Structure formats: structure tokens, C-alpha cells
Amino acid sequence: MNDPVSPLINLPDEMLHISLLDGLVRVLFCRTTQASRTMADIHLPSPVALAACSRIMTGTLMLSVMMKGDNESVTVTVAGNGPAGKITCVGNGNRVKISPENPQADLPLKTDGHLDVGGYIGHTGRLTVIKDLGLKEPYIGQVALASGEIGEDFARYYTVSEQKPSLVALGALVHEGTCLSSGGILVQPMPGCPDSVIEQLEIRSMFFSAISREVADMSLDDLYTRWFDGLDPVLLEREPVVCQCDCSRSRMERALLSMGKTELKQLIEEDGKAELTCHFCRKTRLFTREQLEELLKNATRS
Ligand SMILES: [Zn+2]
After folding, report:
1. At which of 195, 223, 243 does a domain end?
2. What pTM was estimated for this model as a whole?
3. What is the dihedral of CA 191, 127, 186, 205, to 10 degrees?
4. CATH code assigned at 223
5. How many angstroms separate the alpha carbon of residue 204 from the centre of ligand 1?
6. How far is the CA of 96 from the centre of ligand 1 (A)?
7. From ligand 1's centre to the CA of 242, what distance in Å?
């Protein structure tokens, strides 16, 4: 594959919130290249897994930046019948983390030379979105996968589950195992948006078909002003986005305690220690016998 894009391009990751035609259409447009590279450093994915995970992270970030509360989060699970197994991604504001089940699984390129993301995920399965809004019950939406190519699957989620038909393009450009560029766009007409505008948006969606290449070396501002020329694009907000885990030792202590006291006691007797690895950042934390006994003592006291 001839690749004119330099791996040295380091434009910052950011999410742009844009409105068209005085609020008739909402657009989210982002570059997630650095986040994808961070993810790749953690999970050492195959090229196809890198592309799949990048797309899922970008789609999840679009959901999470639309949620405004500090304690709100969204968990996206993609579970298809392909070698990927289950991929879980959590977004919290402008932060995202991801846990792929089989990041090393690989597939040959498709006949058109593209990475076979749909084959890796599987063409049948489910995309589940759980929004924790800090209320008693989370909001849960689930759709059957449209293709396993992720962009179409998120589009189906918005249309079927949220009743907001949307155009979604997600892409990652991977070369020799490295993410050169990653990004995405969501175009969401508000209720009452005239059909003529929707037709215009569909025509312009051709511009997004190679989105990862577009965002590689062009500023997002130059791109959206060109793509939405004549539709009064207005930038409402710009924020950085990042792949970052929020795990902690105290969170792992809670996980140990949730095993139950009997099981914890058994663990101390049999193993004399516990080594816990976070599925999202692969960081391992060691709990010594003394620390586990202390934990058990405090739990018994409470
Ligand atoms: Zn972690």
C-alpha cells in the first residue's frame, strides 16, 4: 500500500462540537490519533484490532462528550461472532479507556486492501450502550450489529435505540502496526430538520468516507468549514480527548472485598498474596498477605 502519510505527524487529539443552520444539525468531529497510540502501547493489538479498537474508542468518546455530568459515564460493549470476542470501552467526559478480549487475533486484509474490521468483530452480534447518569437505574440501549465495521453499528444505535437517525464515520489508518491517524464524525439532524437539509448532508457524507486520511494532516477547522460550506457551521466548543485509565488501588481493594469474606480468607490461606491486573491499562498491583489481612480485618469490623 502506498502511504503518503508520515508517521511523524503529531497533531493534537481534540473534539469539536459544531452546529449547522442555527442548531438544526449537531456535528461532533474529532481526531483520536494519540489516544489510539496510547491504547496500542497498552494492548499491543494486531493491525485489525488496532483499527477496531480505535473506531470503538472514537464512537464511545462521541457518546461521552454529549453527557454533561462529572459522574456520568458510558460503557459500550461490542460483542460479535468474530475472533475479537468482547470489547468493552468506557467513556467519561473527554476520557476513554478500552478492554479488548483478544487484541492479538489477526486476519488477512480484505481483497480491496483494507483491514477486515467487520471480519474481526464478526458480522452478527450486539452493540450495547449503558449510560450511567448517576441515577438509580442506568439507561441501556442495545442493537444488533449492522456490519461489525463499527461506524455503521453506531449509526444503527443512534437510529434504532435513541431514535435520532445520524451519519457516523469512524476510521483509523494503520501502517506497519502503528496508528498513523484516527478520527470520526457524527452528523445528527435535530427533530424537524427539513428533508432538503438531510439530503444535503447525505451528499456531503462522501467527504467523510476516508476520514482517517482526512484528519491525518489537515486541521479539523479547515476540514469542517470546507465540508459544511453554505450550511452556516458554527464552532460551539473545542475540547481535548485522551485515552486514560482511572483505576486505583482503592478501587481494587473494593473488588477484592466484593469477592466475599470467605473467599478472601481462602485466598490468603492458599495464595498468601493477590496480584490484580486492570483490564483497561494492564497495570498490575500486588497485595501482600499483611495487606490482605488488614483488608479483611477492616471488612469484618464494618
Ligand atoms: Zn487501569
Report:
1. 243
2. 0.93
3. -100
4. 3.55.30.10
5. 39
6. 11
7. 14
